[in-house]
Amino acid sequence: MTRDDFNASIRAIQAFFENEGYLESTVYLVALPRSEDFNATTLTSKDYSVVYEKGLSLSHYNFILKDLAYFQFSHASGGEWALAYYPNPRVSGSPDAFAEFNDLKDALDRDEINDEEFSSLVSSLPIGNYIPRVRFEYSESQYRRVRHPGAHFHIGMSGEDRWASSRKLSPRSFGMLIAKHYYPDLWWNKSRFSLSEEDQELPGNVETCFDEKLLNSIRNDGVSHSFAEFERQTFHFGALQAAMA
């Protein structure tokens, strides 16, 4: 994926969250620059909240959502890039925690509490880690058959897990996958699969369906060029598979 295409995909997924009212703020609408400070923290800490807070304090992200979860999209070359979702360990994935967080934001807006009190109260919310950190990496140069898939996911904090993928992912596809699985109130209102079966196939519902838009985005991303036949036969993440006879 060229850098221009990568940056265009960042703008597309940022606009997606903005249009749905889930965007808090934006820092970079292009590939994220390297941060030695953040990278040092990720290499030395296995405590997710420490890593998350470091990225938050440095504003080392492309954009951040209303729950203060953020996305990082970095691009090294046409054959190497990384996509990451960092959920808020206190809020993301918990409707109750998100409601409490929004109550605090409302109190701040009404001047019932000041910025310092708001920060202190938010920091006192219990760490639930309701959603894992999710990263997707594509690297043709690091590919080792079976041992190090060219396209793969890291889920959680291990770093040694590499869930193979037969397809490349763009920032747009990655962000939409995160929205589908972790922001159900955003996603399912715009999915035709929330409708009755007879309404699911109506042309207007197909055209506006988020699942259709995601599928088209994945189709445009293309297949991984570093994926062996043995890897194809074993468990992996994939899409657009041929229908079984």
Please characterize this protein's 3D structure.
- There is one protein chain.
- With 245 residues, the chain is α+β, with helices and mostly antiparallel strands.
- The chain has one domain.
- Helices cover 42% and strands 14% of the residues.
- The chain is built from 11 helices and 7 strands.
- The protein has helices at residues 3-19, 36-44, 48-58, 95-109, 115-123, 171-182, 184-187, 197-200, 203-208, 210-221, 229-233; strands at residues 23-26, 63-65, 70-77, 80-86, 134-139, 151-155, 163-164.
- The chain has a 7-stranded antiparallel β-sheet, with helices on one face.
- A hairpin with a 7-residue loop joins β6 and β7.
- The longest helix has 17 residues, at 3-19.
Note the beta-strand portion.
5-15%
Radius of gyration over all CA atoms, rounded: 19 Å
Using the alpha-carbon principal axes, give the shape. globular
| Count of helix runs | 11
List the strand order in the largest sheet.
Answer: 1-2-3-4-5-6-7
Average residue pLDDT = 94
- The arrangement of helices and strands along the chain is HEHHEEEHHEEEHHHHHH
* Broad structural category: alpha+beta
* Number of structural domains: 1
User: How many strand units?
Assistant: 7
Distance between the termini: 33 Å
